[in-house]
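Late entry, written up from scratch paper. The run itself happened at the end of the previous shift, but nothing got recorded in the book at the time, so transcribing now.
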Amino acid sequence: MSDTDPDALDRRIAEAKAASERPMAQPQAESRGWAIGIEFVGTVLVGALLGWLIDTYAGFGTKPWAMIVLLVLGFAAGTRRAMQTSKQFDANPGA
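Output as recorded:
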């Protein structure tokens, strides 16, 4: 340990500090992925909930068809929204 150069140690410490201060892209990309997933799941759940409410409380006699139709529409809307959001993220990777 006594044979090491103190300047080399200072240089290594400075390099480590500089490396730790650089912005990391991974957490930002992960949060974008979570945002897309949550939007998708939320859209599907809202569609299913609206269909269930129509079937249960509207009295149209559509049970279970309103829930099935709105679940499929929610899935389609969620897929479309996820693709739009993903396209926005691809167009502007830094934000």
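DSSP finds three helices and no strands in the chain.
(Scratch paper discarded after transcription.)
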